[in-house]
């Protein structure tokens, strides 16, 4: 895996994930180049719009990875997964985050601000960003997703 300072991360959140997004930008992502695609306040927005913006940037190769945050991570993962080339993984803890990278080559991490505490979200993102895809038999399986 590349050094975090060499990574470009597209990040977005709806109103439920706004505070966690800001926290992650100021902590785990502080060494990365960050493309913040909103929202910029806790004013209600529609999560599919944010998910589409982030997923499009990742799918176009303008960011190495994407991070999406809503209340549960479920809506964001469903919306992002509709974009060709996106393998969105909703993870609530570090083990799932690690395996989503190692086995599934996930390129968008979806977090739930209402169900995952701040410190656990930080650790989950840190593990996700620093875990490489194993390739091998997993590459064949990921190819079937594509």
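Q: What amino acid sequence fits the structure above?
A:
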């Amino acid at each position: 895996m590349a050094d975090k300072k060499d990574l470009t991360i597209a990040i977005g959140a709806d109103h439920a994930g706004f505070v966690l997004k800001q926290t992650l930008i100021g902590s785990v992502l502080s060494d990365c180049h960050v493309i913040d695609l909103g929202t910029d306040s806790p004013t209600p927005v529609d999560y599919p719009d944010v998910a589409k913006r982030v997923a499009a940037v990742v799918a176009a190769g303008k960011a190495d990875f994407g991070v999406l945050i809503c209340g549960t991570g479920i809506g964001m993962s469903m919306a992002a997964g509709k974009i060709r080339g996106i393998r969105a993984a909703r993870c609530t803890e570090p083990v799932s985050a690690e395996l989503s990278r190692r086995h599934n080559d996930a390129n968008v991490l979806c977090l739930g601000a209402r169900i995952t505490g701040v410190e656990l979200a930080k650790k989950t993102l840190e593990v996700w960003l620093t875990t490489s895809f194993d390739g091998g038999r997993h590459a064949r399986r990921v190819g079937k997703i594509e």
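Q: And what stands out in the fold?
A: The beta strands are 8-13, 33-36, 65-70, 88-90, 108-112.
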